[in-house]
Amino acid sequence: MSADPRLLVVDDEPDLRTLYEMTLLREGFTLDSAGTVEDALELLGSRRYDAVITDMRLPDGTGLDILRWLEQQGRSERALVITAYGSAENAVEALKAGAYDYLTKPVDLRQFRMVVASALGRAPKAEGTVPRPFSSAPPVSTVSPTVAAPPARPVAAAPAAVEPVDDAFAPTAPGTFDVLPPTDTPRSGAPERRKAPRPAPPLTGSTSALARLVGDSAPMRQVRELIEKVARSMAPVLINGESGTGKELVARAIHDVSARRPQPFIAVNCGAIPEQLLEAEFFGYRKGAFTGASEDREGFFQAAQGGTLFLDEIGDLPIAMQSKLLRALQERSVRPVGAVAEVPVNVRLLSATHKDLTAEVAGGRFRQDLYYRLNVIQIRVPPLRERMEDLAPISARILLRIAADAGVEPVPVLTPAALATLSRYSFPGNVRELENLLHRALALSSGDGIDLADLGLPDSVLGLDDAPADAAFGAEASLLTATLPAETAGGAPLPSDLAAYLDEVEKQILLRALERHRNNRTAAGASLGLSLRQMRYRMARLAISIGGDES
To answer: Looking at the whole model, is its pTM more than 0.90?
Structure first.
């Protein structure tokens, strides 16, 4: 953020624009305003701003036009979009166009202050304790999982890091409204300029976790590019990938390069928490809420206050907990077990799964509305077999860390024969399996190098027991090649039921692939060029019931 922070407010309704300005001036910002896309671009061309707040519908275009201009010019301003109530499509489009966050009309001014403060890396200004005027307007719904910031202490002059303020939800002065009604009336307004005190400096990021994503393959370059893009906004991110690919590392990288880096990063494995404890673990509880609750305790949301909450294996959440999570994301607040009031929270939510959530939704095991809220932006982490060119640098990094932990010097290296052998293995357990394998190899090796014998891989794992020596490490399809039945040879009798015959051949191939990959459907399917969904379909059609492990 600049030394003299300034915001640009773009709205063609003079009354709404004035109300936005009054709200932001009370927070201590310097403002310019515009009523059209043309006026906004003229102001943006003449100076830089710390943030741009724009309505979606404008007389000569849309807020997306401003977002696209900022993206094309490589500008650093964070953009907040205000759109009509219920326009989820516009909101998702805005987030994908680079918006930091968005609000829907009618706009709750309390939430408006929170989102602007979050975009600028500062806490909202306390405004006293005047009672808030009653409002019967409906609650605001947003796609972003970030929720309003909690109460904290006032910000000192030019602090080194963001500190919370005491009355983050302080009401506006009597006589003003806390909710803005939607309006579509055409209007215009001239740019205005107002001065205000200097706010706190922004948070800065780091690339420590991003640097740990080793590899220069095309899939990994794409992952890193997506991380750097999504870190600038508050858009929900769903990280998808097989077990062992490093989904949590991707989530940590997003946190590390975002403005929330100085705040907590809380990682939660949703599949490891007993169902009866989920609500208490997520939202906390009050003393006396149940037997054994001897004191108040924070949940994961409160622990991640101001930072990032990462929900790993979110596909394992039961339906009942999915409903409570959805409400927390919509309301930006949580209700601890045993409490009568909700507690506002300010977290960014990242989620990950190895499951096909589309299939889970179709099967009624995952809520469709929660899926759409989480899946605004998706990052697919490629399995190791799809980026084998990264095997050497990944192995070197793992060996360096393992050797440092064990106090081994010099750091052992893989011999060319060992590396060639590993490069022909499909790694159903991905990077996690590679790490375990190298742990064992380092312990068994006796010299400065790790050779083929140190890897301890049985022939059956690599398919050496039923393939010629010169083709043992060929493509996975060649490992599954079997002697063709007599019916395929010239002059042999033809099958009386071709469909049944082909089904039996396909079934035998699938069974061999499953056996070779220890009944892991994901790995077995990949070795045959099939997705998990295709593998499930074929297994169901051919009545194959083994292969329950998808990790």
So the answer is: no
